[in-house]
UniProtKB/TrEMBL annotation:
GO terms for molecular function: cyclic-guanylate-specific phosphodiesterase activity. Residues 31-284 form the EAL domain. The lineage of its organism: Bacteria, Pseudomonadati, Pseudomonadota, Betaproteobacteria, Burkholderiales. This is GGDEF domain-containing protein. It comes from Herbaspirillum aquaticum. It comes from the Bacteria. One of its GO terms (biological process) is cellular response to nitric oxide.
């Protein structure tokens, strides 16, 4: 009986279900528990968006913010995305989660503008499953509902996103571009795709993966790869941004090699809405 196979685990709090049934091995019951917990997280608004600044390398001005999801779990505390996004992708839960992220980020950006803060695009990460035919219409609805101009939204996709079903992806990306938003390729250099898609896909920017940035000062190969990506981006008329910049040496290298934008702990960690608002206010005040 399903009823007797499930009971409320009193010691773990009101909303926590545990499953035990002879036909379930621990892996299955762990996954079920995760599924239940993530569904509850959506219903009870346990997800939070943090915002990390993107800066111009030319003058240090803020040119954007990336929204990064966190899960404030009553059982586990703050859970980073790498610990639940892959599972959400597998189970399809990424669809409602992704919709929540997009809606929240757009409304928040509009709020910042209404508060008189600098107008900057907010970047949202997309999972492969989200890039389907209904996405452009959904994005368009969210922009209308939030009152955010499309130019203030950027979507970050990975190389693998577009390799799943290249033909359909191209069509969807074009439909998204027609809305007037920006598209960037995240974690560039780590995927499996060929470079030829860069000609066919309507993207505006490349984000150099942080694994290359981490080693640019010490490792000649990483330095060469970063320089090559910067050149490639510029030849194709794309902006290029380095992620994961943690120190002055990396900053100097990127500036010397004409990278356009930077993002990383050296300039600003991912912050809560409150902290990012204060940070942005200070930046605006310095008049840069
Ligand atoms: P990503 O989009 O490549 O985001 C960059 C990651 O690098 C973030 O990790 C960020 O906190 C981290 N980071 C930023 N600056 C530095 C630095 O200077 N040094 C180091 N070591 N790390 C830095 P985070 O927030 O844990 O996110 C991990 C990944 O989870 C993201 O990688 C993205 O792929 C995914 N993710 C985050 N939020 C969402 C979301 O809303 N939807 C989807 N589908 N995926 C998301
Ligand atoms: Mg990203
Ligand atoms: Mg990245
Ligand atoms: Mg990444």
């Amino acid at each position: 009986q399903a009823d007797s196979a499930m009971y409320r685990a009193k010691e773990q709090g009101r909303n926590n279900f545990q499953f035990f049934a002879p036909w379930m091995d621990t892996q299955v019951s762990n996954r079920l528990e995760m599924l239940i917990n993530l569904r509850r997280a959506l219903d009870q608004e346990e997800f939070k968006l943090y915002y990390q600044p993107k800066l111009s390398l030319k003058d240090g001005s803020v040119i954007g913010a990336e929204a990064l999801i966190r899960w404030q779990s009553p059982e586990q505390g703050m859970v980073p995305p790498d610990r639940f996004i892959p599972f959400a992708e597998e189970t399809g839960l990424i669809l409602p989660i992704g919709e929540w992220v997009l809606r929240t980020a757009c409304h928040q950006n509009k709020r910042w503008q209404q508060a008189g803060l600098p107008t900057i695009p907010v970047a949202v990460n997309l999972s492969p499953r989200q890039l389907n035919q209904s996405l452009p219409e959904f994005v368009s609805d969210v922009l209308r509902q939030s009152g955010l101009d499309a130019s203030c939204l950027e979507l970050e996709i990975t190389e693998n996103v577009v390799m799943k079903d290249a033909e359909k992806s191209v069509a969807t990306l074009h439909a998204l571009k027609r809305l007037g938003l920006q598209i960037s390729v995240d974690d560039f250099g780590t995927g499996y795709s060929s470079l030829s898609y860069l000609r066919r896909f309507p993207v505006d920017a490349l984000k150099i993966d942080k694994s290359f940035v981490r080693d640019i000062v010490r490792d000649a190969d990483s330095a060469a790869i970063v320089k090559a990506i910067i050149s490639l981006a510029h030849i194709l008329n794309l902006r290029v941004i380095a992620e994961g910049v943690e120190d002055e040496e990396q900053h100097a290298f990127l500036k010397e090699n004409a990278c356009d934008e930077v993002q990383g702990y050296f300039f600003g960690k991912p912050m809560t809405v409150e902290d990012f608002t204060a940070w942005l206010t200070r930046q605006a005040g310095t008049g840069r």
